[in-house]
Amino acid sequence: EAQVTQNPRYLITVTGKKLTVTCSQNMNHEYMSWYRQDPGLGLRQIYYSMNVEVTDKGDVPEGYKVSRKEKRNFPLILESPSPNQTSLYFCASSLSRGPYGYTFGSGTRLTVV
Amino acid sequence: GENVEQHPSTLSVQEGDSAVIKCTYSDSASNYFPWYKQELGKRPQLIIDIRSNVGEKKDQRIAVTLNKTAKHFSLHITETQPEDSAVYFCAAELQGAQKLVFGQGTRLTINP
Question: In degrees, to the nearest 5, what angle opens at C-alpha A56 toward C-alphas B88 and A16?
Answer without folding.
Answer: 85
